[in-house]
Amino acid sequence: MALNFLKSLLVVVFSLFLCSISIEGKTQVEEHVVADTVHEAKGEGFNPGEVIMEHIMDNHDFHFADWNGHAIAIPLPVIVYSPQRGLSVFMSSKFEHGHASYDGYKLEEGTIVAVNESGEPDASVKVYDLSLTRNVVQMILGLIILVVVLIKVAQKYTREGAGKAPSGFQNALEPVITFIRDEVGKSYLGDKYEKYMPLLLTIFFFILISTLLGLIPGSANVTGNIAFTFTLGIISFVVIMFSANKHYWKHIFNPPGVPFGVKLILVPVEILGIFTKPFALIVRLFANMVAGHMIITCLILMIFIFTKLSVGAGLGFAPISLGFTIFIYFIEILVAFIQAFIFTNLTAVFIGQAIEDAHGEHGHEDDAVII
């Protein structure tokens, strides 16, 4: 299955290469951009910075490209509520990629704003955007995949029993689940690991699925969205806080064996550490995912940048760009697994610190956590 996925990935990247060499002449290069922002230059020429930012930002539709480099957009539902105007529901295609207004609203730089009869923004109208953007749609898709896959595996265990050798997709997931249980759950949570395994497995597979879906050209970079990682970090923070015992809070507000003068410095640092732990989870995942997608986008755009100078230069650089893009894609697949594991692992570490007793144990002698 992994081999078939990698083959499909190579086909996608090669398709991007074919799209790039099918564009004829400098004018067409300025007018069409592969996979994300295929737009008219409006006299300002091709702007790689805008393309990169639009790729990593959220949007109200999915953008793809055909063999000639022309845009193919899949519109998404726009749901807007205004206290002055009420509820409006329509498809994002009504905006014509931001060039038109509809029902008193207009899309400006990815944000829906209210406009007056002349088409100018109307600041007096309050707008609440409840739309199904591509990040939201892709998160729902990732959630559906997560629920279906894990329920199917659980049902197979229920039917066949735990003693029977796994088969099919169950065979692929069992080593991963066992690894998370043994190397993360038991190592940092001791006897209490079963209580937190549903959380740890959900975090791991949800991040992994969302990241892999984001590697499909034209899809949303969900794990590279700060709101997504912030929500996951807040969930981990809430679990840590509600799991913390008296020993944890005593260590925070009254560190044992520390002189009073040192406590005046140490206690504020410990309190700050409560909030820096989820912050580290949020920023680590966000920064790594954004960086990877920006590198891939930059490598693809290098073809257009060179083609803008000379068609021959663009064609000559295309194989180099393609080679590096394939290499980074493989790295990004590895990073998807690594980042999902790191987020899950650190969450278990922080929970383990919150539930350990005065002797640094989680319920028995063999599960002391050394951080």
What does this structure look like?
By secondary structure, the chain is mainly alpha-helical. It folds into two domains: 77-129, no CATH class; 134-367, no CATH class. 61% of the residues lie in helices and 9% in strands. The chain is built from ten helices and eight strands. It has helices at residues 2-21, 25-31, 48-56, 134-160, 169-189, 193-214, 226-243, 246-253, 260-309, 311-355, and strands spanning 61-65, 71-75, 77-82, 86-91, 101-102, 105-108, 111-114, 128-129. It has a three-stranded antiparallel beta sheet, with no helix packed on it. The protein has a three-stranded antiparallel beta sheet with strand order 5-6-7, with no helix packed on it. A hairpin with a 5-residue loop joins strand 1 and strand 2 (71-75). Helix 3 (48-56) packs across helix 9. The chain is globular, with a radius of gyration of 25 Å. Residues 1-44 and 363-371 have low confidence and may be disordered.
The average pLDDT score comes to: 77
Major beta sheet summary: 3 strands, antiparallel
- Compute the gyration radius: what is it? 25 Å
Task: Look at the helices and sheets and give the structural class.
Answer: mainly alpha
SS summary, helix count: 10
Along the chain, the helix and strand elements come as HHHEEEEEEEEHHHHHHH
